[in-house]
Structures are given as structure tokens and as C-alpha cells.
């Protein structure tokens, strides 16, 4: 842990490991990756986009937990929270083979309730990956978006 700040006499002061914040008028603490909010990747392991996202995270030394929602399922409460935070139109993957294989009647007049029911019944209809950073979420994978999202977490 690296802590920095200004001492009572307004001179910069810093020390690795041991720092007395009561002696500083301001304090910046930079935590290593392992102490930041946990990162969880939601998706299915054989998805090419998931593979790219996981490879990017691993190549950048980012620890994460993978949740296979085809094998482990997805709780309705979690999906509700995602829909509240991101919106169902972001999460529902209309380009997926699962969605395209639905009868035309089921694909028409989709609203939030219908979209949530479809995604719970078949999680492969959820855009992938869903990346939970603890304080925010990302859907899909673009290397530049990931780089920006993790830039403020770097040591």
C-alpha cells in the first residue's frame, strides 16, 4: 500500500506500508489489485466474446471470478438488479441464436417483464459478457472500454 499526503507543515510525505493519516491534511491511498472491489465475469465459457474478455483480463493481470450462468443459472434478483442498473434493452441479445430461434410471436411486443422472463428461461439470450466491477457494470467486450474501466484501478 502506498499512502501519500501533506504533513502539518504542508510538505509532502509518504511511506510504504506505515503512514499516519492523522498527520496529513489530505490522504491518497493506492491499493493493490487484490484489495480492490471484486471483478465477476458472467457468461458462458464457449462464447468467443467471453474468451476474448477473459484473455484480456488475464493478460492484464486482473483477478476475476467467472460465473457460468448456463451451468449455475442466474437468480431473478440479480437479473432484476442488472435491468434496473443497465436496462433490459442493453441486456437482451436479439442477435443470439437462442433469440432468433424463438417463434415470431414471442419476439414481438417485448417489454421489460417479457424480456426478463426470456432471459431467465434461457440465459444465453443475455449479451455477453456482463462484467461486474462492484461499483459499475459493463456489457460486451471492447478492449479500449476495458482499458478505460480498469485504468483507475491500476497501481
If you had to describe this structure to a student in words, what would you say it looks like?
The chain has 155 residues and is of the alpha+beta class. It has seven helices and seven strands; from the N terminus they run ββββαβαααααββα. The strands form two sheets. The protein has a four-stranded mixed beta sheet, with no helix packed on it. Strand 4, helix 1 and strand 5 form a beta-alpha-beta unit. Helix 2 crosses helix 6 (112-121).
SSE topology sketch:
Layout: E1 2-7, E2 12-16, E3 24-30, E4 40-43, H1 48-59, E5 65-68, H2 76-86, H3 88-91, H4 97-100, H5 104-107, H6 112-121, E6 130-132, E7 137-139, H7 143-151
Parallel strand pairs: 4-5
Antiparallel strand pairs: 1-2, 1-3, 4-6, 6-7
Amino acid at each position: 500500500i502506498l499512502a501519500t499526503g501533506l504533513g502539518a507543515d504542508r510538505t509532502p510525505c509518504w511511506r510504504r506500508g506505515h503512514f499516519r493519516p492523522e498527520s496529513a491534511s489530505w490522504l491518497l491511498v493506492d491499493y493493490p489489485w487484490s484489495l480492490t472491489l471484486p471483478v465477476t465475469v458472467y457468461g458462458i465459457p464457449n462464447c468467443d466474446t467471453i474468451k476474448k474478455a477473459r484473455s484480456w483480463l488475464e493478460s492484464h493481470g486482473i483477478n476475476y471470478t467467472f460465473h457460468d450462468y448456463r451451468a449455475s443459472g442466474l437468480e431473478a434478483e440479480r437479473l432484476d438488479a442488472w435491468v434496473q442498473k443497465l436496462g433490459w434493452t442493453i441486456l437482451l441479445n436479439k442477435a443470439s441464436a437462442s433469440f432468433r430461434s424463438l417463434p415470431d410471436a414471442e419476439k414481438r411486443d417485448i417489454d421489460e417483464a417479457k424480456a426478463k422472463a426470456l432471459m431467465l428461461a434461457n440465459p444465453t439470450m443475455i449479451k455477453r459478457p456482463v462484467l461486474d466491477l462492484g461499483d459499475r457494470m459493463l456489457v460486451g467486450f471492447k478492449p479500449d472500454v476495458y482499458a478505460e474501466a480498469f485504468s483507475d484501478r491500476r497501481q
